[in-house]
Design brief:
- It is a single chain.
- 56% of the residues lie in helices and 7% in strands.
- With 158 residues, the protein is mainly alpha-helical.
- It has one domain.
- The chain has a two-stranded antiparallel sheet.
Length: 158
Amino acid sequence: MLIDFARRHKGGFVTEIEVNGRALRECVLRVHQRQYYFEVFHNMDNGVSEIKRIALYCFWLLKYRPFVLKFKPDLDNFPAKVERRDYFEERFCIFLLTMQIRRSYSGTPRLPISDNGVADIVYSLKHHDVSKETLTLLFETLEDVVRMGAKTTPYSVE
C-alpha cells in the first residue's frame, strides 16, 4: 500500500523510499502501548477501533517521520505545478483514512469533504500541533459522517 501510494505521490517523480526502521518500530510500539492503555484503564477488551488505530499510527508517523523520499535526479523537468515541499506522511495519513472508510463502507468513493478541506487538513497536520486525541476525533467524525450517509452540510447552531 505504501509503495503504491508513493508511486502516485508527486506525480510519479518519487523513485525510492528509504524507511528508518527504528522510527517505524517506535511508531508501532507506541500504538501497541496505547491499545494496552485502553484495554487496562478503559476496560476495552478489544482494544481500540480500526479507525482509532489508524489515527494513532498516523499521529506517530507524523511525529517520527520514518519515510524519506528519493526523487528522480532530473529536477529541471520537475513539473511547476508539483511543489517541492513534501507532505508525504500527511497525505499518506489521509490515504490510510480513506482506505479504511472504503473498506468499512463499500461504495464510498472519497471522503465527504472538499479538496480544499483535505488541503487544509494536510497543511494543519504539517504545520500545527495536533494531538492524538484531536486526530482520533477528526478521523472518527469523518467516519461517522460516511456511516450516516450524510453529505457535507454546514453545521447549524440553531
